[in-house]
Amino acid sequence: MRKLVAITLLLPLVLSVTSCSRIINKFTEDKNLTKVGDLWPDVPKMDGLTSSEAELPVYIHLLMRTTLNNLYRLNKEGEDKTPAKGDWAVFTTPKSADDVKDFYSNERMTSFGQWDPNQKSTCLDGKQHGFSGVACVFGKTVNNRGNGLLIVASHDEAKKQTNVFFVRVESDETANTNRPPSVPSAPRGEIKPIDWNAPYGIEKRPMPTGLDLDALLPKQVGPYTQTLLERADQRGVVPTSIEVDGASVYATYKASDKDIFVELGVSGSAGNAQSALGTAAGDTTDKFPSDPRFGSIGTEPSYLKVTNESGAFFAWTRGKYYFSASAKRGEADLDVFMQAFAF
Fold this sequence. Notes:
By secondary structure, this protein is α+β, with helices and mostly antiparallel strands. It has seven helices and 17 strands. It has an eight-stranded antiparallel β-sheet, with helices on both faces. It is elongated.
């Protein structure tokens, strides 16, 4: 499969709104995915699939942002979210999208192609992403390269058939050499505590613990009231919990006409949490700040503060936890929120 260069691969720690729009634009403009005529040897072919000339719809590119592009398993622990691109194929079938979902089960994918086992379904409801059908994602590592597979079954009511798209990406071992030197990679060695004052005094605050969303994202932060809580991979779906190395959670806070958008992700390691910060840095600034008043990575805590015409953005890590907060109206609104936030 051809290895191409692209943007970050499931940080279940999905990026903030500030960087999200840039990522989506980059994907929807990408013309370099290579179409192939058949499936790969490690992907089973469901009976009744017929090759199609359909093109990749825009919603598939957007899905790549929330599935393949955020797939943690495509990266070794503590590494950057390695850029990658790859190949795609499309077929039609008279069967339903649910039939496709049932065929491409975790059990079949694990036994047939040694894709990583999952205790829970890796499939998403297409209605949450603007189409009628389902999308399923799988990952594995082969010869030290991460592989991600997105399968989308979309119902075509006019033709009374289901379009089935397969998109496969593989991490490129040369990808890290393409990273701008001004944006540092996530640390691979020891994460050292800072010996200076970080923005908002976050280094003096208690470390977050557990997975209780009410504790991690309080209903009230100073004058700001939480008005919306949703899964990053299923916008509009209210999460009841957050999982380690699972989808991140978005929260919206309001105080009068002021809005703060917050993201929370919980990783299996401090290194992976720092990778989220490195990814956010690469998508919000061309040069990571050398001034410790505005940025530090490879430390505890790590953080990045950016203020520009789009508003004010602050991302930080506390151990295995990643947070970001953005204020469209600017730094003054962000300051009030951050001064009252617990972590």
